[in-house]
Amino acid sequence: MTRTGVTRPDPAAPPGDSPNLRRLRTALALSSTGQWLSVGALTAMAGVLARDDAPLDRAPAIGLVLALLLAPAVLLAPLVPAVGRLDRRTVLVAADLVRLVLLVSVPLVDAQVWTAVAALLVGVAALPWTTVVTTTAPALAGADHAERARTAALRTVFGAAPVAGVLFAVLSLVADAVAGAATRADLVLYVTAAVFLASAIAVVTLGDLPRGADRVPSPLGLLLRNGSAAGLAVLGLALAGGAIVAVAQVEAVTLGAGNPGYGSVLAGLALGAAFGAFEGPRVLAVFSRVRLLGLAVPAGALLLLVLALVHNLVVVVFLAGFFGVAAGIAWSAARSVVPDRIGHLRSVALVGALVAVAVLPPVAAAIGTHRLGDDYAFTGAQAILLAGAVLAALLGFVALRRLDDRRGIPLVPDLVAALRGERYTPPLEEASRPLRPAERGVFVAFEGGEGAGKTTQARLAAIWLRDHGYDVVTTHEPGATKIGMRLRAMLLDRDTTGLSPRAETLLYAADRADHVANVILPAMARGAIVVSDRFVDSSLAYQGYGRKQPVEDIAKLNGWATQGLVPDLTVLLMVQPEAGLRRLPAPADRIESEPAEFHERVRDGFLALAETEPDRYLVLDASRPQSELSRQIQDRIREILPDPVPAAAEDVTSTFPAITD
Ligand SMILES: Nc1ncnc2c1ncn2[C@@H]1O[C@H](COP(=O)(O)OP(=O)(O)O)[C@@H](O)[C@H]1O
Ligand SMILES: Cc1cn([C@H]2C[C@H](O)[C@@H](COP(=O)(O)OP(=O)(O)O)O2)c(=O)[nH]c1=O
Question: Which ligand does the CA of 606 lie closest to?
């Protein structure tokens, strides 16, 4: 604030940040801390109220409370838009106050059934807050900074978990010190209620919040759509992580550490996960993200295996922390592997955790405790942790096998080089690649939305290929031939008005037919590698999905135009349309100036095309640094390269001594 009371923009604040947005994030931090604390507080209370003699018999009651807390997020998300029509601040305050009342009521009612009902209602009351991340914070930041605001809000939600974990452990210790070992969870329940009060007050002090359509995608819908092997790895971790949380309290009580012990395990897990997710992008930065994912998941599984077998709380807390780190790194790697399917990954994690906490505790209780020798008891809790570890490791390996983006490059030297901060590049002739007849060249197409970096990456790939002695032809669409240049002018000139979608499609196809006949096929016939900036997929995405014309028809038309030529590899660079368009210099051409929804449809179209033929596509997150992208592209191109020297010629030349100077 200046002396005149006018708020000046904070020069250090990220673009799009406003005082109101910052206050909203503070409220979100408080509310999220309360929600995470509720998890510890209500499960602790469920454990106390179960009152069974053997700690393991309390597991199903604890699992039930966890499942009821999570279930609304999975099952009721589609109902959230209904609250979007109400006043935003009133809904958020009501959501906090409802949770406050519920948490205070739990120790007063003091009944197992009410604790379970309260858990369900706390889960329901948390739902309106999800719209702060999906809608309100991005709307407050404005269109240009919406994505950044969404990310910051998500970080706030998950960053609150370790804070709540540590707070829960400390409060449990205090309660233990004051009231003795047989404490209930009253203190932490009341403190959680107070945190919700603080959140409600923070919301009241907020300025106006924008209304707007709430978009809370249904986790169940996302679970089934956009499946990916990366999702399998995340599922493995979610099941394993869910197993830890589901039996943490039982383990802590069995080891004589009570709620402070339980809180320490939760805090360790949450701190580790937050650290891993935050640092993930910097871990082995030059190493393939797929391989990092494929290694982090089994590493987490191994930690879980040891965790299941030791009977020492301090060791368990550290192992839970390291498991969290592995899980966090794996999560960040999975996000970079399928940047376009993060919603799917989140749904897998949520549903996996829900299944784990609902199903595993009753199984643990049913297995019971078995004495092995005189001083080692093996419990059902350990059994499900072991099962979680094995399953996670298996799913991690499946993901690595299915997705490996450095096939043919040995894992160990690749990892050793990455540990030294270097990128392992096998000599070209050592890389395993199917040899292709040299008389037919190779055709690589670069596709993607506006400003995705196609021209940049096509150029870098061509330079790299030429460095390795290949005959390379770089070309582009539309407009690579004389006729094509005239067609391009017609197609992209903003003065061209009223061009019908069919005519547009035919003109692009005419340009392509000329391009294939006069540039691409002659180059391939002499064995060259052709690198094209755009090809048929652009027509399918722009004229098909963008202009809403039948994709099948366009594919048929282009099959004829191209004489059936299909790229050996299509590199698809995915970028958020608005980010891509921002990268381009003004003024926009006729297609670039289409509305945002058109470009969204084009983007979705490209993805749908890649999904139908995953082996032919390399899909990359174009927001990553250019050098990283080009390395991944090189790795993939290497797999399809022909021998640089025709096999027949090599038979002769290889008998001569090499002259290197
Ligand atoms: N990975 C990247 N990160 C940031 N900027 C990039 C990246 N790749 C390309 N750019 C920049 O974005 C702009 C558009 O890139 P360009 O290769 O012409 O995209 P396209 O051919 O897909 O329209 C250029 O200024 C380029 O330097
Ligand atoms: C090849 C092709 C391009 N287009 C559009 C996409 C681009 O907006 C424009 C090509 O313009 P261009 O300036 O080459 O852009 P970029 O660098 O993004 O490739 O033509 C189609 O709509 N259909 C097609 O089949």
Answer: 2
* CATH superfamily label, 439-647: P-loop containing nucleotide triphosphate hydrolases (3.40.50.300)
CATH 3.40.50.300 range(s) for the chain read: 439-647
- ipTM score here? 0.97
Residue ranges in the chain modelled with pLDDT below 70: 1-16, 180-183, 212-215, 225-226, 340, 407, 426-439, 643-661
- CATH of 14-216 among 1.20.1250.20, 3.40.30.10, 3.75.10.10, 3.40.50.970: 1.20.1250.20
Residue with tokens 């050996």: 568
Q: State the virtual CA torsion across 393, 397, 402, 406 in degrees, nearest 10.
A: 140
Task: State the DSSP H helix or E strand holding residue 286, giving kind and residue range, or none if neither.
Answer: none
**Each residue of 526-544: pLDDT tens digit?**
889 999 999 999 999 999 9
Q: What is the pLDDT of residue 555?
A: 93
Query: Do 334 and 230 form a contact (C-beta atoms < 8 A)?
Result: yes
- For residues 291 and 402, is the Cβ–Cβ distance under 8 A? no
Q: Provide the CATH topology of domain 224-422.
A: Growth Hormone; Chain: A; (1.20.1250)
Sheet holding 529-533, edge to edge: 472-476, 529-533, 442-448, 569-574, 617-621
Q: Whose CA is nearest to atom 2 of ligand 2?
A: 538
Q: Is 622 annotated as a binding residue?
A: no
Query: Do residues 380 and 291 make contact, with C-beta atoms less than 8 angstroms apart?
Result: no
Q: Tokens for 518?
A: 């006069």
Q: What is the DSSP track for 522-537?
A: HHHHTTPEEEEES-HH
What separation in Å is there between the alpha carbon of 536 and the centre of ligand 2?
A: 11
Ligand 2: nearest atom to the Cα of 539? 25
CA–CA separation, 361 and 39 (whole Å): 16
Q: What are the residue ranges of CATH 1.20.1250.20 in the chain?
A: 14-216, 224-422
Q: Is the CB of 84 under 6 A from ligand 1?
A: no
Locate 197 and state its tokens: 């009060």
Give every CB contact of residue 467 below 8 A, 6+ residues apart in sequence.
none
Question: What's the pLDDT at 297?
Answer: 95
Quick check: CB of 454 below 6 Å from ligand 1? Answer: yes
